[in-house]
Structures are given as structure tokens and as C-alpha cells.
Amino acid sequence: SVISCFYYIRFVKIMYFDTPKKWILYKPMDREKSLLLAITLFLISFFFLYPSPLFLVSHQMALSLCL
User: What sections of the protein cross the membrane (predicted)?
Assistant: First the structure.
């Protein structure tokens, strides 16, 4: 309990009160990676909001393995 308290207080101290030792510089993303990220995000969002097609395909695949 005391050990976990020390750990979490240290974590909060590092997150909010310490200055970063090194600045992170982000490079611009090229077109191919951007397109791949957009397609992946769309598919994940689609199957999260409407999972029925994925369930139907996996059900058909399972049935084809059984027969």
C-alpha cells in the first residue's frame, strides 16, 4: 500500500511537474501512410458501429470448416 502510494505520487510528479528532457518533433506523414491510416480507421469504425457483416462472414467460415 505504501509502495503503491509512492509509485503513483512519483508518476504524478513526473507527468505534471518535471520538464521534458527532450522535445519530440513530429515529421509530416507521407501520402501512402496517411491513406493507409485513413482506410484502417474507417474499417475499424465501420466494424465497431456495424459488426454484423464481420459476424456473418466469420459464421460462414466456421460452417464451411465443419462441413
Answer: 35-57
Using an 8 Å Cβ cutoff, are 20 and 28 in contact?
Answer: no
CA distances from 51 to 6, 21, 28, 46, 60 (A): 43, 44, 33, 7, 15
51 with 59: CB under 8 angstroms?
Answer: no
Q: Rounded to whole angstroms, what are the CA distances from 7 to 13, 20, 21, 53?
A: 10, 19, 20, 45
Centroid of chain to Cα 34: 16
One-letter amino acid for residue 32 of the chain? E
Quote the pLDDT of residue 51: 94
Q: What is the value of pTM for the model shown?
A: 0.54
